[in-house]
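Submission checklist for the structure archive. All mandatory fields must be present; incomplete records are returned to the submitter.

[x] Identifier: Beta-ketoacyl-[acyl-carrier-protein] synthase III
[x] Organism: Amycolatopsis plumensis
[x] Residue count: 327
[x] Sequence attached
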Amino acid sequence: MNGGERTAVLAGLGTCLPRQEVDNAALLARLDTSDSWIRERTGIAARRIAGADVSVGDLGHAAGENALKAAGLATVDAVVVATSTPDRPLPAVAPRIATTLGLGAVPAFDVSAACSGFLYALAVSAGLVATGVAGDVLLVATEKYSDIVDPADRATAVLFGDGAGAAVLRSGRRGDPGALLGVDWGSDGTGRELISVPERYDGFLAMAGKRVYLKAVEHMAGSTLRVLDRCGWAIGDVDALVPHQANKRIIQAVAQRLSLPERKAVCALERTGNTAAASIPLALAHGQEAGTLGAGDRVVLTAFGAGLAWASAGLVWPDITTVRSEL
């Protein structure tokens, strides 16, 4: 591919987190655990939990509105929403968000790939742009895992939080800062029971922790190497790795597997926990604010989640704005 080929370019970021922060101490009354146990094994000190009056659509609307502001746009040609915790099985969340944002009758649909949802939706959105089907696309990742996590299950209750992140993609060329340079994605349905919600309407999330850990490290590291090859980069060229924020040990193990210095792996879950599909855009916003991501940096995004599904993407970080809010 050459620098003139049409591709999707990252033009702005938006985030929205619930105002309520639940720290580890608040969990001790109902769970057989301790603050030190949670921090040592997950790196999480607190997570944001949305109230009953705040929906997945509400969080997604706010994040999407912020991304549009960041990109300086009032409208887009399509809306793609990544979520594994929709407010209802039907209809999709995306048309509601498109309508509440005043975007008119634009095409809008959901993508369900659990913690890999943002990158799956990124790949789909980039395809719309690259083929000329859409010029500008609003990509929203929004989750409310507090609706599906058993508050009495130590294995999951300490991990997950709620939140949303969004990105605006515009049409551009491969030589532009922020251009998507390569994508790798895949799935393995034989592992579908490792992370699942058995009951359609009222079941809780179940997860085989040790096996998920091994699969996450294997697939995120492998997918990262494949996307590096597609971008024409070596591991030493990478300035920042932005992995799905599952837990700190997985992030550390992926960096180690790749022989990448741990300081180059963005870890942004200490005060938010695992926000599934929303974790990568939230981590991007954190990395930009902390100075971990700077204009011109070669950045790789990678994720793994239920399905099993995994994905990675590579881009050169642009000089963009992030707009944040709380609900």
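[x] Structure attached
Curator remark: The chain has two domains: 6-173, 180-321. The two ends are 43 Å apart (CA to CA).
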